[in-house]
Amino acid sequence: MNNSDSKYETAPKGLKNEIEGASGQREHFMSELTNCYKAEKMVTQTVPNMINNACCVQLVELFTNYLEKAKWRLSIIDQVFTCFGEKFNTMVDQTEETEVIVNITEFNVVRHDALMEKAKTIEQNEIATYEKLHFFSKTLGEEEAASLIEEILIEDKIYR
Fold first, then answer.
1. How confident is the model over 80-112, as pLDDT tens digits?
2. Is residue 8, in this structure, part of any structural domain at all?
3. Can you tell me the distance from the alpha carbon of 83 to that of 68, in angstroms, rounded to the nearest whole number?
């Protein structure tokens, strides 16, 4: 056996694959969690512009509630990072899509529909990602993280 396999010298081949797989799952989980953090942070930076450009009171209320939920989800994600003994500390990417919508549409029903469609797309992507994170946290045996992520899923399903 060569030196690169020395940490697995006594591990059977199947166990070696499980050890490598668990490490890969954790890295994938942390990558996805980081993406969620970035997405939620982007929402907290983008939605105020959507609120300012909403064409009706109902849309303002919808976006305001969405902004509050995003802030809440950020606090939960911070707790999940803590479960893994890590902290998120990278710069968050900026999005320009909402600004494009606002810049190319007039303050009317077209803007309203475009902003609504953008909000639906963001939420659908978030739910799918949180469902995946919930699955991976359970697979990794991180029950506290799974429970925290489940809070987000429960909250989001209430508002649908």
1. 988 887 766 433 333 556 666 666 667 777 777
2. no
3. 23
